[in-house]
Design a protein that fits this description.
Blueprint (H helix, E strand, L loop, with lengths): L5 E8 L3 H15 L3 E5 L10 H6 L2 E6 L7 E6 L4 E4 L13 E6 L2 E7 L9 H18 L8 E6 L23 H13 L2 E2 H6 L24 E5 L1 H4 L2 E6 L1 H4 L10 E6 L2
Parallel strand pairs: 1-2, 7-8
Antiparallel strand pairs: 1-12, 2-4, 3-4, 5-6, 6-7, 8-10, 9-10, 11-12
Helix pairs in contact: 3-4
Length: about 260
């Protein structure tokens, strides 16, 4: 088999892996990403469809939770080598929101950042605390010699250019100055926001809610991000969003978001 020239990394909030498994398998078959981070499994560890994913050619590790949250990492023709399955900094936090592994020579931190609504309130405080823990952990990953990617549903709209109507989200936790500042602190460490790097000022969205045909009208948000450390950012070739997945019947409200990097 000839050596691959590029690797495709993708993140996808499936919004319930049980009900969305046909969509996920269809997307994997058509797009064939090499590395995938999944969020919002809404399934226990026992209910995770490892056998179906294996038949599709993907090794998987996962951290499930009944009814809520849940994250997983997939490797095409490869089994992820797990390094951690929680975000350090708060041993009392039992929510399944982070998983980390080496896949195809790249260290992947797959994350599902808290939504934080309603704000102000305890859910927003938890979001900010979680982001501070992520910031601290990210400092240990950004300057290493290995390629590293942090990817997932960040539940942060970085700028007004990342939402179809900023005015309607002014009170939303995803757009608060504190949320944006915490995200900006990550970038200041040296991480590259890959979609923005590729698309520049062009508007591109990764999430569309279920109201008023927002997906069909492309009235969305950009909240799913792929951040690359300097070693991996040098290998960035392409980026995109598979919006066709969101336009399917009974789809997740997110679309797969991906980048292509040169193979090492």
């Amino acid at each position: 088999m000839p050596r691959k020239k590029t690797l495709k990394l993708a993140t996808f909030n499936v919004n319930g892996i049980g009900s969305r498994l046909p969509h996920l398998l269809d997307w994997l078959g058509k797009e064939q990403p090499d590395i995938v981070a999944l969020q919002e499994l809404k399934a226990t560890d026992q209910a995770f469809p490892a056998d179906a994913l294996e038949k599709a050619g993907y090794g998987a590790i996962w951290h499930g939770q009944a009814s809520w949250n849940g994250v997983a990492l997939l490797g095409r023709d490869s089994m992820p080598v797990e390094s951690r399955r929680d975000l350090p900094g708060d041993p009392s936090d039992k929510q399944s929101r982070y998983i980390e592994a080496a896949i195809h020579g790249i260290v992947i931190g797959g994350l599902y950042l808290p939504n934080g609504n309603p704000q102000p309130g305890p859910k927003f405080e938890y979001k900010l605390q979680w982001m501070e823990r992520l910031r601290r952990h990210a400092t240990t990953m950004v300057d290493v010699a290995q390629p590293v990617a942090l990817m997932g549903d960040f539940n942060v709209i970085p700028t007004d250019e990342d939402v179809y109507d900023p005015r309607s989200f002014r009170k939303d936790a995803l757009l608060q100055p504190q949320s944006r500042h915490a995200y900006e602190q990550l970038l200041e460490q040296g991480w590259t926001d890959s979609l923005r790097q590729v698309f520049g000022d062009e508007r591109i969205y990764t999430f569309w809610d279920y109201f008023r045909q927002h997906a069909e009208r492309d009235r969305g948000l950009r909240i799913d991000h792929v951040l690359l450390n300097p070693v991996l950012a040098k290998r960035l070739k392409k980026a995109g969003v598979d919006r066709w997945v969101r336009l399917q019947e009974k789809a997740s409200d997110h679309a797969p978001t991906w980048v292509e990097v040169a193979a090492d």
